Amino acid sequence: MMMKLSRQFTVFGSAIFCVVIFSLYLMLDHLQLDHTKSPNNGGDKLQNGQLSILQDKIDRLERLLSENNEIIANIRDSVINLKESVKDGRGGLDGGNMSQGHYLELLASPPLVLPIDSQDCQFATREFSKPADGVQLLDVYDLLTFDNHDGGVWKQGFDITYQDNEWDSEPLQVFVVPHSHNDPGWLKTFDDYYRDQTQHILNNIVVKLHEDSRRKMIWSEISYFSKWWDNIDNQKRDAVKSLFEQGQLEITTGGWVMPDEANSHYFALIDQLLEGHQWLERNVGVKPQTGWAVDPFGHSPTQAYLLKQAGLANMLIQRVHYSVKKHFASQETLEFFWRQNWDPASSTDILCHMMPFYSYDVPHTCGPDPKICCQFDFKRLPGGRVNCPWRVPPQPITDGNVQQRVQMLLDQYRKKSKLFRTKVVMVPLGDDFRYAEALEWDQQFQNYQKLFDYMNSHPELHVKAQFGTITDYFNALRKLSIEPGHPSASLPVVSGDFFTYADRDDHYWSGYFTSRPFYKRLDRVLESHLRAAEILYSLTLANIQRFGKLNDFPAVENNRLLTEARRNLGLFQHHDAIAGTGKDMVVIDYGTRSVVVYNPTEQDRTSVVTVYVNTPHVCVITDHGHPVPAQVSAVWDDSTTASTELSFVAQVPALGLGLYQLSTAVSGGAETAEYVFLRQGGELSVNMKHFTVNIPQDASTPLSIHNPHIQIWSSPTTGLMERLKLKENGSEHQIKVEFAWYGTTSNRDKSGAYLFLPDGEAKMYSPARSPVIRVTKGSVFSEITTSFDHVTHTLRLYNVQGVEGQAVEICNLVDIRREFNHEIAMRLASDVDSKDRFFTDLNGFQIQPRRTMAKLPLQANFYPMTSMAYIQDPGTRLTLLTAQSLGSASLVSGQLEVIMDRRLNQDDNRGLGQGVLDNKVTPSTFRLLLEKRKPSPLSYPSLLSHVSSLYLNHPLISMAVSTEAQSLSLTAFTPLASSLPCDIHLVNLRSIQSKEDGGGPSDEAALILHRKGFDCAFSNRNTGLLCATTQGKIHTEKLFSELRFQSIIPVSLTLMHTTEGGSSKEEIRLKPMEISTYRVQLT
Length: 1083
Fold this sequence. Notes:
The protein has 16 helices and 46 strands. It is of the alpha+beta class. α1 (2-29) packs antiparallel against α14 (517-546) and α1 (2-29) runs parallel beside α15 (555-572). The chain crosses the membrane at residues 9-28.
């Protein structure tokens, strides 16, 4: 027991250190993006403030690194103290190993045929009819002409008319919803925004809402709200709570941020939502009912599903393609039930309101005419800093003009209401960082109250107007449209997503799917490290509590670190921020060293681990002394000089820890890789010792590498792949890798951080000089690497029987720092007859069918690819799995294309005030999977594809054991009794903070599980998977090897609500695609 706990402490210390360092680097180094503002409202400020912001970042980084060194030292000391206490007999712990070795020395071999329950195949084969009033967004795109006619005062819409008597029998209800959108970082840092604006907005909310009980306000970003809460006294906190209780103040969505919905992975979307909701539960007791997303650049049904699972009833979206908005407005379908593609009934429905006009600012929210609506934004009264671009200013409301101003405003309200099916209309009143000054509160609320008083006191107007929260509005809407017996038409059902967004003309926001890919990769690495640390922490804490040794574990301090990492990751999901990283290599630099390998996935796993070594004479053995397959290879500093690395095949149980010993070996150690170098028409000089190097004179023969499953051939001129063969059935396919450049248009509006406005089709990449090609052949992996001027491209095959032997790994190291207005793309050109169809994932959660449309500009046919994209024909599917979010397309049948990086020398007039010129040398990693298939009506990934994606995004984590811990008798750790079912993913096992003061963990954790939908129309032979399917059932008593569930309570996604019925304590049962959360106690 002592050995187990000691090892857990050591490894957790390393893992939490990884999390903290990554989160610090991510938060301090990234440059934020943003969205439509006034084109010239901040560029100068950005340039003037960059040096001071940079200095602040450096100072803060030094301070936090110093603090974290102290934290890691404390964790290390606690390990040593625990070890000594057990040695002295003070611990009272069981001397046996906590895991009794449910695994043999090596994991079981994968079965020849994967055991899949036949009922589990029904999900992907069932077809169900759309509801009569159902709308599928793919069909809408087919229908639309995207002609962009001038609609008059509503430029992107149409003329709206009405009859004066339409409201005689049922008055128009108007809810004006004051709001202030606070970006957690854009032109200023998060802290600067808080200091200069946000804290004043929140302070004013307390004062100004208490002045008049008719006033209302909504707030979304808990990152800001929690910082403010920590700085106010109890009297002000009580005043805030009373505003919540009276319904004057409402928290909408309640996430840590308002997240981007294109690039964010669903793990991070859940994590930031959970962090916000848990903060609200602990501090103010508020449970959000309505989502509010006015600023993400396009909207994903994944977010709709997560809000529904969290217990929210309603949601609002804004940034949708202007042609789609116009169509929905013309059909009166701007309010609908958003349903998931896979849902045959209505269990996933959430009531959604789509704002009809261009923006969420006041000129574009009261009605169709921004010139008139701007006159009712009273912050723009003459004499202020903001005015109306239409050159007609607002007027203060007086007894002399109130009648005329009411008629103007009511006309807009009525016209807006004609776009909806009920006689209730919602009018947002706000913009970015509004209500920071008391004067604006007085200007807006006093003038609007005069307008409302006049409207409400004149029955002949047939209107009832008031301030409201967004949930006030939805409650009224539900009464009119959903409750039985009401004559109003029911609301339609919509399925699909709202990408790719265009706000005007051909200005498609497909550029930001790729912009700053370095940080997109870094974000995904942080997610994996945070999840690993969360699970290890929860398992360690449960074992510590089980044996009564809490005093020997820095639970409170580690919980604080985890909370900090969660919040940093949460901030990065903000729609202006998520915008990657190189391999983090452990260095083994002397004698004999122990390496602990953590498997963050819920599957028993065979994968390759790589560490740096300072000698090629090295061997690897398990903790039982058995040799492990290993390969010593060169680490190339450039194309022809190198140092040394060691790769070995690790076998690690699900969520467990494996232990390996590395030592120097005179003979019989790891095999040495062999190298072949080629360069067409150029001299080559290779500086290597310890390795066999061959430079053939005849370099015209196609290059080839293979493993037990795959063989690939590459061009001897470029090193790029040309053909791929599946050994199981002998089928061979043309799959060519190509690179291409996009330029930017010569028009006035050009590509920038958000917009992709290319100068036509891509031009093939043709380097100025012949590249150096390096072929590596070894016992653990073989690869072909080509060094071009702008990209180093590697094709790798792993010689393992597990999952990673099934795919081609593609790594691109991209450097376009010297380019001018260029974007570089990787293209896969195959013989798959995919026609105009392809598929991309949404947020790593679900698959969305796509159709390439000739009627749309090229940039409109790019979509976000968070974890995979694929093309297929009746017999074959080609899947590209990705370790970072990027923009993708299939512009020609048989092709898949991804934008790798973008360097743009100008702003795209969306408010950022600069181009994209902070490029870094950026690694991007992919896995290419070719699978034989049978035709099926619906499209889901195969099980192999799901698990391959999981392994790509959650690689084994290797940690060299510190010299202090080297003397401990470390052993392997096997927390699960066996792998989870192949289709069930453990999203997180996340400690829940105690409600008591002190900030430590409670004795409960959130267990979040996802059952993935998969397609059985693929071969289930030789998959390398060590799992089965079980109709979504998990027997809780058989889940862990040692721990047991003391309690397991089904709850909503973010623990706000206890769900009805649900799973028993003995069995968890999940439906396909379902994400479920359980509040658990482990003992």
